[in-house]
Design goal:
The structure is a single chain. This protein is mainly α and 236 residues long. The chain has one domain. Helix content is 76%, strand content 0%. The protein has 8 helices and no strands. Helix 2 packs across helix 3, helix 2 runs parallel beside helix 7 and helix 5 packs parallel to helix 8. The longest helix has 36 residues. The protein is globular and about 60 Å long. The two termini are 31 Å apart. The C terminus is likely disordered.
């Protein structure tokens, strides 16, 4: 592969990674919206966003974006560095698509239907997280803050993450956000879900990228005598 082709492939690969990253954010936003619509309790950060909406107005997605800006600002102050582009894209896309999906989704009447919607939402969130993490385009605002606090305090990541979730959940609950069985299912189940979905998504993304590399680099493929036009000699 010559230099020009290599440069072109690097651009295509970067575009592909960002495309997968944004697709993952959209899928994750859909899962979050399903969980909120199920009305059986939300994830800690969404409890906060819903509580802020109930007390101050604006949409849930708007508060997600506003809190994202706040978190990015705090992270920048702690690290003395500009956040990665992925953090901004994560913040804006997730907030926008949460509002879009919530506009169309309707809460079911029966408890069983709500529970199915809730569990489906958590699984979809897991795959969305897997797809946006796998391309390695940058951590989201909340993950960036977690890593910044961990670096400053020298505490273990799980302690910092747990403390963040407890503070956010308590604040959201005091503001009137929905804390119920779905909140518990999410808190205790999302780790196991992501433990399954992230490796699957990572393998899928790596396989797609490798396939693209092989398609771009003709020297890595087995050539056939009829390769130039895709018509087999048998048909001829």
């Amino acid at each position: 592969m010559n230099i020009d082709k290599r440069r072109e492939w690097r651009r295509k690969k970067l575009g592909f990674r960002w495309g997968i990253f944004m697709l993952g954010l959209v899928i994750m936003s859909f899962g979050i919206s399903l969980m909120i619509t199920a009305d059986l309790g939300s994830a800690p950060w969404d409890v906060l966003h819903i509580g802020l909406t109930l007390q101050l107005g604006l949409t849930i997605g708007t508060w997600s974006i506003i809190m994202g800006f706040v978190i990015i600002g705090i992270t920048a102050l702690l690290t003395k560095e500009w956040p990665q582009l992925g953090a901004f894209v994560n913040m804006v896309l997730v907030g926008v698509f949460i509002d879009i999906f919530l506009f169309f989704l309707i809460t079911p009447d029966s408890f069983i239907s709500k529970l199915i919607m809730l569990i489906s939402g958590i699984i979809i969130i897991g795959y969305g997280m897997g797809l946006y993490i796998a391309p390695n385009c940058g951590a989201g605002p909340r993950d960036s803050l977690m890593l910044a606090i961990t670096k400053k305090t020298k505490f273990k990541v799980q302690w910092v993450r747990s403390a963040m979730e407890i503070v956010v959940l308590t604040t959201g609950w005091l503001l009137g956000g929905p804390v119920f069985i779905g909140t518990l299912i999410f808190c205790f189940g999302i780790g196991s879900v992501v433990g399954i979905t992230l490796p699957q998504c990572q393998r899928l993304v790596d396989r797609l990228i490798e396939r693209g590399v092989n398609n771009e680099d003709i020297d890595k493929r087995t050539l056939r005598v009829d390769h130039h036009d895709g018509i087999s000699e048998e048909i001829r």
